[in-house]
Structures are given as C-alpha cells and as structure tokens.
Amino acid sequence: MRQARRESAARTYARSLPIVPVRARGMTVEGADGTRYLDCLSGAGTLALGHNHPVVLEAIRGVLDAEAPLHVLDLATPVKDRFVEALFDTLPPEFARDARIQFCGPAGTDGVEAALKLVRTATGRRGVLAFTGAYHGMTAGALAVSGDTAIREAIGPGADEVTRLPYPHAYRCPFGAGGAEGARLAARYTETLLDDPSGGVAAPAAMILEVVQGEGGVVPAPDGWMREMRRITDERGIPLVVDEVQTGLGRTGAFWAVEHSGVVPDVMVISKAVGGSLPLAVVVYRGDLDRWWPGAHAGTFRGNQLAMAAGTATIGFIRENRLDEHAARLGARLTAGLRELMAAHDEIGDVRGRGLMIGVEIVDPHAAVGRDGVLPPAPELAAAVRAEALDRGLIVELGGRHGTVVRLLPPLTMTESQADAVLQRLADAVPAAIARVRSTA
C-alpha cells in the first residue's frame, strides 16, 4: 500500500505480482508472508544463475574484501581486464578477432543507444531498419526502433528515421502463410524494399534485430531467415546489429543466440545476465566501425566493478558447466510438457521458444478465427493464468502484442524436478483460470 502511494504510475511488475520478496536462493523466492515461489521471471532474464548464486556472491565479496575501487569510470582495472577476456573468449572467433568493446550506462537500452550512435557515426547515415514486434528498451532511440505503439507515444525525434520491416512469425504470420513460406516472404519483402528506387528507403545506417523477440511474445527467428538478413545487409554494406540483451549467455541453448544460425553480426548489444545480476551493459563491434572520438559516448556508471566481477564469475560458471546445453535439454523437456498441456486445452494456441526462453500463447477458442488464420488473443484469460500460477507458487509474466503470451525465463540452473514442478503448477493454473473467467462472463 505504501508503494502504491509513493511510487510512480509507471510501476509494472508490482501490479501483477503482489508479493514482497525477502529471501531468495537459486530459483526459489520467499515472500514476507513465508510463501515460497518458483521464479520463472528471473529478473526479466537477468539472473542466469538464479538468485544469490555462490560463485556470484564470492566474486562480489572478493572485490569488497580487496578494497578495490568500486567506481572507476572507464579506467583500466584488473577486474575489468578479466571480464573482457572472459567475454571475448565466448564470442564467435571471427567476430572476437578484431572486435572492440564499449562500456555504456548500466541498462540494455543504454547499449542500444550506443550501438545506434556507433553505426550512425561510422556510416554517416541516419536511417535504421527495425522489425515489427521488436523491443529494444525504454529510452528515445531504443523506443524508436521498437514495435509497440503503446510504449512509443512519447519517443520524440528519431522515429521517422526508422523503417519497419515484417518479422517472421510462424503462428501469427504477417503474410498469412506461416512457417518457412512466411519467413521467405518476409526476407523477400525486405530485399525488394531496399532495392526499389522508388521504395522511399534511403541507405540505412544499420539493421537491428532480436534473434528471439522477448517482449514481442517469445518469437524465434528461423535460422534461414537470419542468414538471409546477414546476406542482405552484407551485400548492401549495412551493419547488422543484434540485440542479445535477453538471449545471450546460454539462454536459448547456445551461448549466443546468433550461433544457432551461424550468423556473425557487426555489432552485438549485451546486458542483463552479463552483469551476474548487477547492472552492466556493453556493445561489442567490428574494429573498422570504431570511428568515435574520445568522449563520443560515455556513462557515469560504465565502470561497475562489482558487476564485472559478478559477470566474469557467471560467464565462467555457464561455460564450465555447459549450462547452454543444459538449457537446450531442459527447454525441450518443458516445451514438450507444455505442448501436452496445449493438446488438452483449446485455450492454448501455441507453445514456442528456444532453450529456456519459452512462450505459451493464450487464445479464445470460442471466437471466430482472425484474418491471420488463428484464434484471437485472450488477454483476460492470460492475466488469470498468471494470477492462478502465482497462487500456486509460480512466478510468470506476460508478453506479446496483446499481453497474452505467458513467458517462462527460468534460471539456467533449474533442475529437472523444478521443471516438472513448473509444468504441474501451470497444468493446475490453466483450468483454474478458465473456470475463473467463465464464472465472471
């Protein structure tokens, strides 16, 4: 109640998840009332190793016990040096060989802003190619390349410099085709628009995309389409910016989501899990794009030593324990279980994702099929599923264009027994939500 009185109307998670967390370890969160929850939100994907992982705590304590400086702007430190070495060791070799890194402000949106400034400086061009359904952050430039009009109302200058392209969506295909044909048409449209002398699109500074759209409803890009975007941008001298803020560090079943398709980007934006639960954002890019002058991009908190130490520990633990492979296996287990649940309930229209980045789309089976060939979304029912899941000790959030995709972003350390518990709680929550909505109809 005090939070509602004092905090801004912009608060979000606190509205839909009315809990007061006081303790947490791994995937388990305990509320002030003693209720224990399985956390499938993980700080919006930030907690790759879950809450308070021992290797992360040890790394943070090591910096504190050494009395190392915590605030160093962009000065070189042993902590930063170890972080950069660890990060570059994970990158595709052909990318890392001549890459540069820019430390930004502490959030992913700061990284997107830096990436946009970088490519505009390097190319001397202004326009950006972005995609429907995209989400890249909440600052002006990042909002301009996002797709949700509801959160772009006050973006200010820059929106008119963005050309919106269709993102392939196997379930809600913008062309009504779906599958491989929908992806082919999306690529064809992109290429035709760029090559049309009367298409109205000037040579852009970059293309920016997510390999799996997160806030857009957990929509994975087909590998073939990704390779087509790389070919199209390569042939036209357009830098390809890949937003790996949510997909990076093993989340999708590969250390970096681009590895599924073999695509090597020109620029990668990295945040969330890379700070080991603490604020950190970086942009890694091809050396020949490094045409900034000193001070061209900065940020007061770009030297977060605790986050770099926690990030180094997180990277090391994921690699040593092959948690990307674990995410692929456990993600397949969860997806299979959710598809069994879908077979039992017409209210589940689709189950999709990659690794431990999974979405369950909730639809209205009693409505007419829409122009996209599938049932319309059911936002009230999706909200009821989230509430019923919380009542059963499971934290999930919603995403997608209509807020009807139940999103699962559990930590990569989740066990098989925890995965089975998640499935059981959802299996109980879905019919309860259906009954709740019917009773109020």
TrEMBL record:
Family membership noted in the UniProt record: Belongs to the class-III pyridoxal-phosphate-dependent aminotransferase family.
Gene Ontology MF terms in the entry: diaminobutyrate-2-oxoglutarate transaminase activity; pyridoxal phosphate binding
Entry keyword set: Aminotransferase, Pyridoxal phosphate, Transferase
Upper taxonomic lineage: Bacteria, Bacillati, Actinomycetota, Actinomycetes, Kitasatosporales
Cofactor(s) essential for the protein: pyridoxal 5'-phosphate
Domain of life: Bacteria
Transferase keyword on record: yes
EC numbers: 2.6.1.76
Record-annotated membrane-spanning stretches: none
Keyword Transferase annotated: yes
The protein, known as: Diaminobutyrate--2-oxoglutarate transaminase
UniProt pathway annotation: Amine and polyamine biosynthesis; ectoine biosynthesis; L-ectoine from L-aspartate 4-semialdehyde: step 1/3
Matching InterPro entries: Aminotrans_3, Aminotrans_3_PPA_site, Dat, PyrdxlP-dep_Trfase, PyrdxlP-dep_Trfase_major, PyrdxlP-dep_Trfase_small
Top-level class of the enzyme under EC nomenclature: transferase
